[in-house]
Design a protein that fits this description.
single chain, 425 residues, alpha/beta, Rossmann fold, four-stranded parallel sheet, 8 strands, binds Double cubane cluster
Length: 425
């Protein structure tokens, strides 16, 4: 990796803590990713992106800013990236999947709060995330209580625009959400100093749809047995989709899919034919949270879909491309985003229907529903997931975990027992 210390310094990072983080990542990545056998060659690009996670992409963000562009951070797949792109900005995902800056975060947050919230606060207060430090503004949302209250605190350190996400999906909720998306467009125009035109928004919709289509294509290829790519690799690609350059990322995913199509024809896979096929559902797994997928896939199973925001929820729906005016396109964008099945909504039947249909489509043997500790919406919704899967006779394992490694052995024991049970069916 080139020497980026000057850049990190100019961003105001705490270099000592940042070094500690950067020293751990290659070892973890090596043991989780480089140990896999029969990996597709197309994963080389994504390995490179991780090796440059605080390097090349951050440099690109600085170049963009030096040319007058703005960088906008987001924590939720409800934030419409098409709008930021249409205004000439770059949107980056800021959720993080690692315990860091915990001591600083616990000065402003309660100890017993979801690790994802604690992690993003720790990253900001500990000054260890160059993405965060590159942002001109961040966008929050009123999804879960923890996040929405944490954004009040975060606003002391960086300008935060909060979008009010409704909690239901009735007509009046749709109207509220549309007005929130319209306000977001006005805010983004103000921040970037650029007017969103019909032409720029149409292009942004097309570019973002192309990215989502590439991810859908990748997901489709996982229907085959043997699966041509591991769940761990797919999760990594889904994590990278939140911050990489859009056209470059799209081209790389499509190139990988070309390779996977050949693999499928040749019957080549990453696991043996007939290996147990699982769907992973639950709270998002932000980079570099690979703990549970690693446990699953080193226990002999293969993950064939992620019903998560770092997964299908991010790319399963596209924005219609036929609209002509900015107003019509904004309405289409609002409609597409409100279709996402987050447990912060009530009821959230769409999620149960999706898991059940996905299990059939992907010929899955079972589902692992993995929830971050202290995430009330998903922990309570585990009851609805259990009921829906029982009704369809689909085996389910519910897991609750955090970003620590201490429970890895216990999770492995439970996953192995689940796989044994599947083998006896
Ligand atoms: S659309 S899942 S990305 S809100 S895990 S912080 S819910 S306490 S991340 Fe999410 Fe948007 Fe929903 Fe998806 Fe709160 Fe739960 Fe923590 Fe969570």
């Amino acid at each position: 990796m080139a020497d980026y210390r000057k850049m990190w310094e100019s961003l105001g990072l705490d270099l000592e803590s940042h070094d500690q983080l950067m020293n751990v990542l290659p070892t973890t990545y090596g043991s989780v990713y480089m140990s896999q056998e029969n990996r597709p060659e197309g994963m080389e690009y994504f390995d490179f992106v991780v090796s440059e996670v605080h390097g090349q992409r951050i440099q690109e963000l600085q170049d963009h800013k030096a040319a007058g562009g703005k960088v906008i951070g987001a924590f939720c797949v409800y934030v419409p990236e098409e709008i930021v792109r249409a205004a000439g900005g770059i949107q980056v995902g800021l959720c993080s999947g690692v315990e860091i800056g915990t001591a600083q975060a616990e000065k402003v947050l309660p100890r017993n709060i979801c690790p994802l919230i604690k992690s993003f606060m720790g990253f900001k207060l500990g000054k260890v995330c160059p993405y965060f430090e590159s942002c001109n503004m961040v966008v929050g949302e009123t999804t879960c209580d923890g996040k929405k209250k944490a954004f009040e605190i975060l606003n002391d350190f960086v300008p935060v625009h909060v979008m009010e996400t409704p909690q239901m999906k009735r007509e009046k909720d749709k109207a509220l959400w549309l007005s929130e998306v319209q306000d977001f467009l006005a805010t983004v125009e103000e921040y970037t100093g650029n007017k969103v035109t019909a032409e720029s928004l149409r292009q942004a919709i097309k570019d973002t749809n192309a990215k989502r289509r590439a991810l859908l294509r990748l997901n489709e290829l996982r229907r085959h047995d043997p699966a041509p790519i591991s769940g761990k690799d797919c999760l990594l690609i889904e994590q990278i989709s939140m911050y990489d350059d859009v056209p470059r990322f799209t081209a790389q995913v499509n190139a990988l899919c070309d390779e996977l199509e050949v693999r499928v024809k040749e019957g080549k896979g990453v696991a043996v034919t007939g290996a147990p096929r699982l769907i992973l559902s639950g709270t998002p797994m932000a980079l570099p949270n690979w703990k549970v997928p690693h446990v699953i896939e080193t226990s002999g199973a293969v993950i064939v879909a992620e019903e998560m925001c770092t997964g299908l929820r991010y790319f399963e729906n596209l924005v219609p491309e036929e609209e002509e005016t900015v107003e019509q396109m904004v309405e289409a964008i609002a409609g597409r985003y409100l279709d996402i099945n987050c447990a912060c909504f009530t009821p959230n039947d769409g999620r149960m229907e999706k898991i059940v249909s996905l299990a059939g489509e992907m010929k899955a043997d079972g589902v692992i529903n993995c929830t971050l500790a202290f995430c009330d919406p998903y922990l309570v919704e585990a009851n609805r997931v259990t009921k829906a899967l029982q009704e369809h006779n689909i085996p389910l394992l519910n897991l609750e975990t955090d970003y620590g490694q201490e429970d890895s052995a216990q999770i492995k024991t439970r996953v192995e027992a689940f796989l044994e049970m599947l083998g006896n069916r």
